[in-house]
DNA sequence: CGGATTGTTTTTAACGTTCAAAACGTCCGT
DNA sequence: ACGGACGTTTTGAACGTTAAAAACAATCCG
């Protein structure tokens, strides 16, 4: 494997000149640059990243903790990872995966990776309501950016990128309204979830705006499962008054709604419009397709990397992005 | 950030002694070791991985190319990644993610990562029928191990770990047989797929063993989609003779079967037993649950890392693991 | 023509670690 | 008391790169 020294000898210049040819080509005379580049090509030289990192103390690696348990964003994790990876590579960086215990117990792992100079910083996801990681990392001066806001705190430590859940719910409500639905319910989670509060809030506000009823139309599911979604839907339908639209907080809950509707002989899309959240692979796989709110993964990843690598340079480090409504059969005009 | 030098000064020994305390503690006198360790702890010293890697030319990083397009194993990618990551960490290593074009076009990316000393080797997945990567990497002497066999080649370049698809299909057939099914069909893919041939072969052999018919019971779907699975099932059911069991090559195809059965008023599990492959998240989410063949992810990951890191040490570098049949409602005794 | 200015290249010295060899002790047998 | 053997610690050099400063060369200005 060729080294700078060998290239230098071949091109009959000093090592530093070869280094400059790669990192600051404008400093070289045109003909020298050409000669050096020819030697580089000829010897098939590739800079040793470890040596470079040792000298510059920047490893160009970004840590990402792979979540261990399924939950709401789990189904789109591969999309996210691919986008993140691609965005990192556009800046010459890469993603280093690791596992860590949840919450504050995982912090030593983060600290260790940083202290050993294995990563420059972290991208956090699976942000939780009182996520202790943000404050801890900020405290230690370890660079990071969060995908997802830490809810219920006035000022969140550190930078973040998130998708506007309230706006998403509102989009879903207005979409159902446009196809004639007038009693639109919401399938949510327990109050403790900040993400849940964000999304239910969007539903509530949009309904109020449009003059739609909300009383008795918000149901809280105990967990994010098909079963719970179905049960909650049953409760709604047994309530006596009709429901012609359901905005679910997740694709999983929406699937439960679809199942319960079908079981009762109601046609999703025709009799009741249903929407989900996150546009997971499930959404286009069920029958009829599930209308859902897609997170703009590429944009999210791009922003995360831009902010983390400091390229943001003055522009805000808190970015709220808009989801996109992907319309499928489950919300076909009734 | 503390360095070896600082620790050495603090413990009043040479740098090399501190290095030995970490890498070869048996060489130190007990009291020296204790003193050095106290200093390490006190200064919260962590070895700089870049410096170590530069010296030893081993980065303890394993490259994994994140697949860009959905396909059969896509739905369990996060399970795989988590297992791989955990297995790597058990040996002090980590996973570096990257993206690359498919097939031979991606090879420069692999080469580059290796030449720049950013990874020690690679784990390949999404192995394809005439996958050119294995031969190429072998040629370049770049360490790698493959999750999945390169099909239709007598001897595959390099080491691999795979799951026995034929055995899986056979398990499914015997399971359905045990609950009284006697006409068991197979939903497969076009002949070009080696993985498909493996799985259909297992079905065929098991049926022959049990004295079950196979003629006209193997259907090839054009692609891996719900729609195709449903269509193929329809073709089977329209064939005149009854079918009381369906072994599908993938969970997706199995879902299609479930849909078509339900559409015709047949109860999956009761009237026709259905099984899928890979035990994706979909399997436990549909109603009734889909019986499926789980890939032993933790074991797969463990083997991959063991082989790649050379810890295998004489033991075979070709490991065929057995899937596990996860029984759910779709194959409830008829 | 001397001095300043700018542009290009080289020299020197790190970055933090480990390897290999050398040095230092201590103990042993004779 | 001496050479050898062993166990422990230190010394010197190297891994491949880049930052900073120094050296050199060409150009410009009055």
UniProtKB/TrEMBL annotation, chains A, B:
Entries under SUPFAM superfamilies matching the protein: lambda repressor-like DNA-binding domains, Periplasmic binding protein-like I
Pfam families found in the cross-reference section: LacI (PF00356), Peripla_BP_3 (PF13377)
The entry's keywords: DNA-binding, Transcription, Transcription regulation
UniProt key word Transcription regulation: yes
Limits of the HTH lacI-type domain: 2-56
UniProt GO MF annotations: DNA-binding transcription factor activity; transcription cis-regulatory region binding
Protein origin, superkingdom: Bacteria
PANTHER family, A to Z: HTH-TYPE TRANSCRIPTIONAL REGULATOR GALS, LACI-RELATED TRANSCRIPTIONAL REPRESSOR
Identification of the protein by name: LacI family transcriptional regulator
């Amino acid at each position: 494997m060729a080294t700078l020294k060998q290239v230098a000898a071949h091109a009959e210049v000093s090592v530093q000149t070869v280094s400059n040819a790669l990192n600051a080509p404008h400093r070289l005379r045109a003909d020298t640059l050409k000669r050096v580049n020819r030697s580089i090509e000829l010897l098939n030289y590739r800079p040793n990243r470890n040596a470079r990192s040792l000298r510059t103390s920047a490893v160009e690696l970004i840590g990402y903790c792979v979540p261990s348990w399924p939950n709401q964003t789990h189904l789109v994790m591969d999309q996210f990872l691919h986008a993140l990876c691609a965005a990192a590579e556009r800046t010459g960086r890469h993603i280093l995966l690791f596992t860590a215990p949840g919450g504050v117990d995982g912090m030593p792992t983060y600290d260790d990776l940083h202290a050993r100079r294995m990563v420059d910083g972290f991208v956090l996801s699976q942000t939780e309501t009182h996520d202790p990681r943000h404050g801890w990392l900020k405290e230690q001066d370890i660079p990071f950016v969060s995908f997802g806001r830490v809810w219920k705190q006035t000022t969140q430590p550190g930078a973040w990128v998130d998708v506007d859940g309230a706006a998403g719910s509102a989009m879903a409500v207005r979409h159902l309204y446009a196809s004639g639905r007038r009693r639109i319910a919401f399938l949510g989670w327990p109050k403790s979830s900040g993400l849940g509060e964000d999304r239910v809030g969007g539903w509530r506000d949009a309904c109020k705006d449009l003059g739609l009823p909300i009383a008795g139309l918000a149901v809280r599911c105990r967990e994010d499962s098909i079963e719970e979604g179905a049960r909650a839907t049953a409760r709604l339908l047994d309530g006596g008054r009709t429901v012609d639209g359901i905005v679910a907080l997740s694709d999983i809950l929406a699937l439960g709604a679809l199942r319960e509707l079908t079981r009762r002989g109601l046609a999703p899309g025709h009799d009741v419009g249903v929407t989900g959240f996150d546009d997971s692979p499930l959404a286009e796989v069920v029958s009829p397709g599930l209308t859902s709110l897609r997170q703009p993964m590429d944009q999210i990843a791009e922003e995360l990397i831009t902010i983390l690598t400091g390229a943001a340079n003055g522009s805000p480090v808190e970015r709220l992005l808009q989801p996109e409504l992907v319309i499928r059969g489950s919300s076909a005009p009734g």
